[in-house]
Amino acid sequence: MKLNQDGLLVVISGPSGVGKGTVRQALFDMKGHNLVYSVSMTTRQPRAGEVDGVDYYFVTEEEFKKRIEENRFLEYANFVGNYYGTPRDKVEEQLALGNEVVLEIEVQGALQVKERKPDAVFIFIAPPSMTDLEHRLVTRGTESYEIIKERLEKARREIGLAPEYDYIVINDDVHNAADRIMAIIRAEHARTKRCLDNYYALMEE
Ligand code: 5GP
């Protein structure tokens, strides 16, 4: 019998442009894990190179709203004019299989998950500085000046929510950040509250 059999829900969040996506990619590129990425649903238009069903499920606003009514999201948020949400069924399915499910979402959604799944691990990815964040948003070059400005203002407010999280990981270097997240996941598995029942069962064998 293993000491811990339950899959862990890992929420990676933080301001737009902080590099959550790149950190998540580096995390998934690491060897020897059973992480499963929860592909989100969105009403935003695909960017060049994005693939439906891999990067996001791209749907119409009508389709998204229908799913909200049907209570099919674990969380959802309207972020700078578009909807983004986590399909509930896939997350539950993977957790039941004992896999680690990783969500990469903005902060409003993360706070909803905290209400609904308090056992999840909440990791806030922070920029090394505001200047660094601005630089990243500008050089990404995928949004107009107005949208970048809006995202930066939003980022300032989002950074204020960092105390709601279990861990803060500064994205000074993408591989270091991914390493620290992996260390957090491993340590969380050894937490007494997560493995106590199985531990007692082991001692009875
Ligand atoms: P982008 O348009 O740059 O892909 O994403 C915008 C923001 O939405 C990012 O902060 C991203 O992490 C977040 N996001 C992506 N998927 C979800 C989701 O399912 N739920 C929530 N709440 N935010 C999401």
Textual characterization of the structure:
This protein has helices at 20-29, 61-69, 88-96, 107-116, 130-140, 145-159, 174-189, 192-204; strands spanning 9-13, 35-37, 40-42, 56-58, 73-79, 82-87, 100-105, 121-126, 167-170. The mean pLDDT is 91. The protein has a domain at 8-38 and 99-203: Rossmann fold (3-Layer(aba) Sandwich). It is an alpha/beta fold and 205 residues long. The protein starts with 8 loop residues before the first strand and ends with a helix. The strands form two sheets. A five-stranded parallel sheet has the order 2-7-1-8-9, sandwiched between helices. It has a four-stranded mixed sheet with strand order 4-3-6-5. Helix content is 45%, strand content 21%. A hairpin with a 2-residue loop joins strand 5 and strand 6 (82-87).
Characteristic terms for this protein:
alpha/beta, four-stranded mixed sheet, 21% strand, single chain, 8 helices, binds guanosine-5'-monophosphate, 9 strands
